[in-house]
């Protein structure tokens, strides 16, 4: 497996929209039980603070959202639909609650473990959604919430950037509030993008 440079905290300590765009092409890697799995990020969404009705920080500072208010470059992991974990990268300065949701990845390393965790699923169904990719990589709240994305078993690493011509910006999906905000970035050519809108 290729070793890549871990993205520094300064990468995440910027406007959430910039981080969301520049995370396309980066590699998220998770090691569980000595097994390393990774994938190239091909879809992200920005959640930009307390004024964003779709952001968890809209509820204010709570036990659940405390990590969003912390330092940039940490993992904010939450549970949805009573069955899936979703992983986010906290952005901006401490005290400014915002994050980028990783929505889809193209699998790279650890495919056997990823398929096993996903019940034998393969192809795009392996990781074309935020809950799917977290399950495939072995990401859970109890294990990864609040951890550094630079120094823990869950890391985001640099890789070849995605050129602007292959990037599309759309409104976010799967939410009921602030639905028209253009805060979703996708790699146009990737079949792993969760859904087109």
Task: Based on Cα principal axes, name the global outline.
Answer: globular
Query: What is the count of DSSP helices, taking H or I runs of 4+ residues?
Result: 5
CATH architecture: Roll
**First CA to last CA: what distance?**
35 Å
What is the CATH superfamily label? Methylpurine-DNA glycosylase (MPG)
Structure class: alpha+beta
Strand content: 25-35%
Tell me the radius of gyration: 15 Å
Helix percentage: 10-25%
Average predicted local confidence, pLDDT: 95
CATH topology annotation: 3-methyladenine DNA Glycosylase, Chain A
The ordered string of helix (H) and strand (E) elements is: HHEEEEEHHHEEE
Uncertain stretches: none
**Major sheet attributes:** 8 strands, antiparallel
Give an overview in words.
This protein is of the alpha+beta class. It is built from 5 helices and 8 strands, in the order H-H-E-E-E-E-E-H-H-H-E-E-E. Strands 1, 2, 3, 4, 5, 6, 7 and 8 form an 8-stranded antiparallel beta sheet that branches.
